[in-house]
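USER:
Working in pairs, take the chain set out below, taking as long as you need, and write a paragraph about the fold.
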Amino acid sequence: MRKIIDYTIKRIGLLVGVLFITLFLLNILNISLRYFWGMSWLWIPDFSRLIFIWAVFLGASILYARKEHLEMDFFINKMNESTREKLSLFIDLGMTIFLVILIFEGYKVSIIRMRIPFDMWDIPTGYAYAAVPVCSIIMLITTINKLINDFIKRRRT
C-alpha cells in the first residue's frame, strides 16, 4: 500500500509543479499585456485563482503524506517514546475524524458552488471548491495507512 501512495504522491507532485509553472507564466503574461499593450485578458485572474487553489491543496496533501507539513514538535520531542506513540495515535484518530468531516462538508459546499460561476467564465466555482474534499481524501488515505502500519508495528512488539 505504501508503494502505491508514494507513487501517487510523486505524480501529484509533478502536477503541482506544472500548476505552479502555469500560474507563474499566466501572471507574467497578464503583467506583460497590461504593461506593454495596455490590455488584459479578463479570464486570467479567475483561471489563476483556480490553479492556485488546487496547487495549494494538492501541495498540502503531498506535505502531509511525506510528513513534511509544518509541525510544532518541541514538546513532543521532550516526551518519552511510549507517550509519543500514544499522542501520535490520538492525533491520527483526531485527524481521521476531522478529514471525514472535511470530505462531507467540502462536498456539500462544492455542490452548492456548482450553481455559482466565476466572474468572467461560465464555469462553476465548485470546481475550485472541489479541491477540499479531493485533497482531504488523499490525506485520509495517508492517515489510515499510517494507523494500520502503526497497529501492525505494535502487534509485532
